[in-house]
Predict the structure.
Amino acid sequence: MRTIQFREALREAMNEEMRRDPSVFLMGEEVAEYNGAYKVSQGMLDEFGPERIIDTPIAELGFAGIGVGAAMNGLKPIIEFMTFNFSLVAIDQVINSAAKLYSMSGGQYSCPIVFRGPTGNAGMLSSQHSQNFENWFANTPGLKVVVPSTPYDAKGLLKAAIRDPDPVIFMESELMYGDKGEVPEEEYLLEIGKANVVRVGEHVTLVSFGKMMKVALGAADELAKEGIQAEVIDLRSVRPIDYDTLIESVKKTNRMVVVEEAWPLASISGELAYMVQRRAFDHLDAPVIRITCADVPLPYAPTLIEASLPNVARVVRAVKEVTYAKAG
């Protein structure tokens, strides 16, 4: 094991897959000459050249469409959005082309493409650059949606996504690119759709994904000081969702709190709450509680951002509510 940054883990995944398969290429804004907006693709132009590391104009609709066409013709594009806020410009290509191609062609065409880039709040970027669209993409049949939380997961899941025959939405975080974690030197892949039980506990199930795992784990640490042992589950992907792992945990703990950065309406946390009450109702000793972003466009002011987003204190209060503990 070595300790490397989140961005380095992503870069290793792309480098290894591009060396393994000459049909893989990377396309996006500033991925080549500038070494990537977040330095994820640093040095890749030098190794693979401008035919496989391709800078584009600021035209997401255009280069996403080029990627879909390339995937239809046997290549394996990695399309980098500088932020998934900008993917809205290309959402027709993602939703109406990539996601539906296999079904509408009767299985004659697959679309092995990865759309990747950062999602969510990155600090004082205001409403148009601080949004979470995991649930939007997860709502679409034909797409897989992956949201890693550690360098280890980022590398293993991205390698799996690049090899996947179907389109994969791979959502990262600007605030995590510098995070460090242990990553094996030998090759490995992680299964898309398999959740990870990060911490074993017996009193409540805490579920999250992406950078909100930091909030969930921070809350688990605080709760442990008061004798409340939380089982913490990282979904890793929000389509497909590993419901079985969640249900087995809830059958043991009898309570669940879900932490999600997105807005509350039509959210992943709402889907999880439904499925748990549908499949494990008799095991629940309290209603499922969701901790989400406030139902407003994310403000610019840091004090208002802090008030809007999930945090450790909110999660601790929710857990105490479902475990009938006093809030103090």
Notes: The domain at 196-322 is CATH 3.40.50.920 (Rossmann fold).
